[in-house]
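Reopening: Tetratricopeptide repeat protein still failing for me.
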Amino acid sequence: MKLLHSLWISALLLVTLCKGAKGEVNPYEELRALKSEFVAVKAFSILRIDMDLHEADSVLKNIEFIHKLAKEKEDKNLISVYYEMLGHYFSLRYDRVNSLATMNHEKAVQFAQDNALGEQLFRQNFSFGNYYYTYFKYADAYRYFRQSLSLLEKLDESRVAHVWQYYITLSRYFFDIKEYDMASQLLEKALVYNNKLAPRELFDIINTLGLIALNTGKTDEALEYFKKVLEKSNAVLDSAWMGIAYGNMGNVYAQKHDVNKALSYFELDYKYNSQASGDLISGLISLKKIAEIQFQQREFAKALVNIDIYLSKMEKKPIRYESLVEAYDLKARLLDTLAIEEGQLSTLKEATKYNRLLATLHSSSSIELAKLEDEKSNYDQFYRESRQYKRLSILLVITLGIAVSVLLVVLYKKSKRGTQNLEVVKNDVLEEEEEYCPLIILSDKRFHTEDSHRSVQISLELRQLLGGNLMNNRNWEKFKLAYINSFPCFFSDLLQRYPELTDSDLRLLALINLNLSNKEVADKLSVSLDGVKKAKQRLKKKLSDHIVYN
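Support: Ran it again with your exact input. Result attached.
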């Protein structure tokens, strides 16, 4: 649910205009005096205001100041922020996911990673995820949000400016994808900073906890949360949040089938949030519910007035399509019941239009949901394997020690045997190497060659694509096509011999075939050095099992 920023934005606009009256000063000039950890948040707020005040070209020119300031201060953090602001600029300008915004967010992440900027890498992964989240690309957002959480676990939270705000946004995302346990954990982490939270941040946290309880059938617990929001918002005379609390209390009573109580709370929400300082969306949602109850109670004329107000004021955005379809359908039934012919045809046309848009949205949502489930499954598998490796680490060290000891004893005994026996052993080893060729590939970086120190000849296009992040699906598809041009039978031969290989396995083998070191592979795949080693170990086992059982 959106919070109100109108007064805050108006004040900032006034300050900016006053500065403009004194002379042309780049709005990002005030970043000069800020510490690195505060720069990104401040720069984004400046960008939003600049977009409201100036033409797009002028805004883009202003952003260049950040790059100049980075060079002047020799601050690498500012370079990442510069790319991030370009990403935000293009997403705000076109109001959708687009290649320019995506490219600059990728650059921000890559630069932070290449320069080992820990806090900035967390910020840029979060920012990239939030970019996708804003435009309902939940699967893409999942990957970057999860990465940002993993990075945050390794950081000192005290060095992350306003860390609770990241927790609040992440909790909303996990609430939206119905991972309620994760959302609750993040909200509890945000509450640790209770003494630093702005009042509305606190209201938002408590309210979301209430929504989680309501969505999981804990209506009494939900009601207590919403009452707490009402009490705290009333104490600071925040009428918008008072209305939101009333509306959610109405939802609780509606779920309990107490229609009269629900109606009274929905009316309070609309009363508070239909004012200029209110949260209009919350008020209109309650107004629609009032109209639905009035229709059930056969107060048709009142219901028609309220649904007309709702339709005239509600934003016509994808997130509202389902609600708009329901509203137009209700209006059509009201007009028919009241025998009002005027407006029936136009209402049905609008209902049909939004039904079509909703069908298209549901189709894309189904694809997005499938992608999200796949992304979550991959993460869960990785998480389980990581925990398993941690639990077995001590056992592996002990086992390795024993194995080394046994090997030394065996080698000592074999050294006492004659040259003939030694040659037999060598021949056996060579035969074993031929049989288990894939394992040797992964251990010494060779593939389809006897020479591990060969120089690999690849096309200019492939060399350029190696500079990108291959974990990005778009980059990987381009890379794969260029790779096939250089190594036509590489992927087909592998899949014919090992059909169980996944896309991730092929990506790893392709980089190994280019004679890249573990560190270089880690850079291209945006994982740790240990992550590459573990991936190789898993691939070793997969190929070994194939040879044994096939």
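The chain has 25 helices and no strands. If you still see a failure, please send the error message rather than a screenshot.
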